[in-house]
Amino acid sequence: MAPSLENEVPNKSRVTVVGSGNWGSVAAKLIASNTLKFPSFHDEVRMWVFEETLPSGEKLSEVINRTNENVKYLPGIKLGKNVVADPDLDHAVRDANMLVFVTPHQFMEGICRKIVGKIREDAEAISLIKGMEVKMEGPCMISTLITEQLGINCCVLMGANIANEIAVEKFSEATVGYRQNKEIAEKWVRLFSTPYFMVTAVQDVEGVELCGTLKNVVAIAAGCDLLMLFLPFYFLKHFQLLFLSNGEFGTDSTGFVDGLEMGNNTKAAIMRIGLREMKAFSKLLFSSVKDNTFFESCGVADLITTCLGGRNRKCADAFARNGGKRSFDELEAELLQGQKLQGVSTAKEVYEVLNHRGWLELFPLFTTVHEICIGHLPPSAIVEYSEHTPKFSLLEGSAQFY
């Protein structure tokens, strides 16, 4: 049972983590170390757990509370004695005024519907979720979804954050994106920061969030190792299509060079190309996105980390090695042990935005990655996307070649 609120010290913040997967469990660990450290927070950190029955027959939430470990999604890591797993979503969020959302993005609309009217009026939220919803009226970032459905302010936290490395306290960075209230942003920074997890804040929610979203599509392309065979031909024949107007580049080819062992110089160049297209797409959607955001941890660092490792690249590599004959759903179930693959669903959402706005030819790799993912094209189709000339007029300025 949650402690009674009658004897609580005024103005202390109570934190609930909504989500208990790999990254959610690591987030709870980070936060729990700081709620014990700072008197402005209540010690206890609630973590909502989507209840599962383990092979032993025990409930996941009960095992977490007994062992202080998420034995399924983060085995071997102590979360902190002040982390309490709660399978009741309503109860988990009821008394919290700081809500940390970290679930697969496709579940967020349903979660928000369940807790409307059941949270504190003074609640603040932060999203660690990488993805977006695509509606008839256009793309909706998860932070916006939370704000619109729950009526609360929502910041975001993104960065080069492979959860298992942070869990064992290897140094990492992250970026908090906020809208106007710098004071609440600094409170989130204080809640997450540790000697091994350095957090900074920037006033650019959409920029930070889109960096975290789009890099997962980059990672899908980076993992398609069988496509690497076509890279030299692609560069020689279709080099001009990598460049968009105002110096913006084509997208996510990072890992294509790995199988050819073309070296670190080439890999670095491809990562830069991917980053430039992420920037172009983001600024087309939101003119408020700041250039400097792409040089924060949420931008270039997260792109590099995700292209060198992570679940999206792992599944994409397996997909390509099987010639596209095994679906991503099948590979996700086999390789990720219950975790969700974000890049494929995000590629679909990005495709829908591009299609609706007539931008498919402007972002040919994003388009092709989605069509390969859904089986409409074979992996070798990566050499065909350049048959179409990009519509440079969609972006400001003229095409630039280097």
Automatic annotation (TrEMBL):
Which residue intervals define the domain Glycerol-3-phosphate dehydrogenase NAD-dependent N-terminal in the entry?
15-182
Q: What class of enzyme is it?
A: oxidoreductase
Tell me which Gene Ontology terms the entry assigns under biological process: glycerol-3-phosphate catabolic process
Q: Which residues does the record give as substrate binding sites?
A: 130, 311-312
Q: Which UniProt key words apply to this protein?
A: NAD, Oxidoreductase
Classification via Gene3D superfamilies: N-(1-d-carboxylethyl)-l-norvaline Dehydrogenase, domain 2, NAD(P)-binding Rossmann-like Domain
Q: Which InterPro entries match?
A: 6-PGluconate_DH-like_C_sf, 6PGD_dom2, G3P_DH_NAD-dep, G3P_DH_NAD-dep_C, G3P_DH_NAD-dep_euk, G3P_DH_NAD-dep_N, NAD(P)-bd_dom_sf
- Family designation: Belongs to the NAD-dependent glycerol-3-phosphate dehydrogenase family.
The protein here is known as Glycerol-3-phosphate dehydrogenase [NAD(+)]
The source organism is Ilex paraguariensis (yerba mate)
